[in-house]
Fold this protein.
Amino acid sequence: MDDTPLIHQDIEKAHTLPSRYYTEKSVFEEIISTFSQSFHFSAHISQLEKNNIIPLPQLENIMEESLILVRGDKIRCLSNVCTHRGMLIATTPCNSRTLKCGYHGRTFGLDGCMKNMPEFENVEGFPSQKDNLKQFQVREWKGLYFVGGNKFFDSVCKELDRRLGWINLEDFSHDESRHRDYEIKANWALYVDNYLEGFHIPFVHSDLNNVLDYNSYKTELFEGGVLQIGIANEGEECFDLPESSPDFGENIAAYYYWIFPGLMLNFYPWGLSVNIVNPISVDKTQIIYHGFVGNRNLLGKGAGGDLDKVELEDQDIVEATQRGVSSKSYDRGRYSPTKEKGVHYFHRILTD
């Protein structure tokens, strides 16, 4: 048996992912079936202060569950499926003291326990534990809430604390005007590939290239993710870093964090932009944006100034690449050792 890994650990010897990873339904389904092992973004504390019940439809594909995040005596993740006939309980964020199914009126407490059900007086053995909503594990880092498995959570939080523990993320506010929802005709992994390298910036993002110092662009790897650091050109907006920061003295325009499999946490001087990559099918992906503002005076400035333009430019590239990798004349390429370390690391995690 050949034990040679599909992606060689030495980037100078490695070939990129075979095209079947972007084009074959069976490969797509096999990969997606493992995503419940990873943790996934659900909400920021500011969202739960406005609406104490938040549905999480973006997780239905990868978790194979319909879930809600609920703030009662504590924050919980519950099944969003009524235990009577399977109707979804909440379809939009709302404020309520109870969870009530709109189909037949079954009511649950914010702890998931069933409280009331019309016309069930003579049902034997009712209610039971099975009539309560199932609970799922919730994890938190500085006001960001995650659900799902444990894979990489500790190592990711350790890295975030080391780099950005000084940011008062809990005090950021959710900005609904920054919410976006795109659907692109491309495989989810192609979108991640594109995100994980600044190699394309001078060729695709002319405005962003004017803000960032391309030659100083950095890529760092950590267990379960990749950090790209954008250095600001002279006179452009950058972080006011404390002495405790490992980057103190540098003009940091942006911290771009990718966390396996498809979560991006983009920190700018104005705040945080969260990108959620939601695989729909082998050649269709939903991209969800959420914005959380720490300094409203800096909105529209620097590397995080025009995210819509950057996103649309990326989508054009990724959709064209999807058509390209579907061609019979293409299978695999090679990596740039200096510019594509993040892509190489992603491919190694994916194939391992």
The mean pLDDT is 93. The domain at 6-36+175-352 is CATH 3.90.380.10 (Naphthalene 1,2-dioxygenase Alpha Subunit; Chain A, domain 1). The chain has two domains: 6-36+175-352, 39-150.
